[in-house]
Amino acid sequence: MNFQGILPGDNVFRASIYPLFSGGGRFVPGKMLNISEEQDGSLLTSLVWERYAPSSKYVHAFGQRLADKMNANMLAKHRKISEKNRKIYAGAYQITAQLIRDMGNGIEVPNVESADVIYHIEDGEIAHADLRIYLKNEIQDAEGIKTEIVDYIWRECSGPLTPKFGQHEQSAENASKILEVPSKGRYQDRRSLPIKLVYHLRFYVLYLWWVMCGQKT
Question: What is the pTM of this model?
Fold first, then answer.
């Protein structure tokens, strides 16, 4: 069984954290993706892998924990958090691993050498994956290529997938209303009930295997 390899048809999700995804009160796809340039010259951002987040409940739980950790880090550093700076999970966007990898085919984003989705447990999150992109050697303007990458991902993704908000979660609900719908439309989980059950069963088996093998987080 392939425990760690992310298959071409696997869904991955990008969590959207407010106010990080906004600029001037409006949704900005580039801010939502938050692609950083690494020391080795690669571009990097984080995703949620469906294999360890087999339903919207798990995707949203990942996003909520991410926002909570950001707030905890801010509180530890500054001892207080203003409402303006408080991080709020608002929803997620979906794309397949194959569409990510297609960026390296020389056609979709010509200046990309390779793009991949790599399973990488981070900060105790077993559903975490890296989206890592390498540019062609002759490229000097990484920022310009990042714009092309963002445009491609935004064109190929669907969403947003938003959680159900309780009566005391008005701030989160307001943040989710800022999220925009890409050209492919809203994400719809079209899996049949038997397939959903298979995904959940696989998740529990793999999670048990992961724990029994003593994997480090």
Answer: 0.90
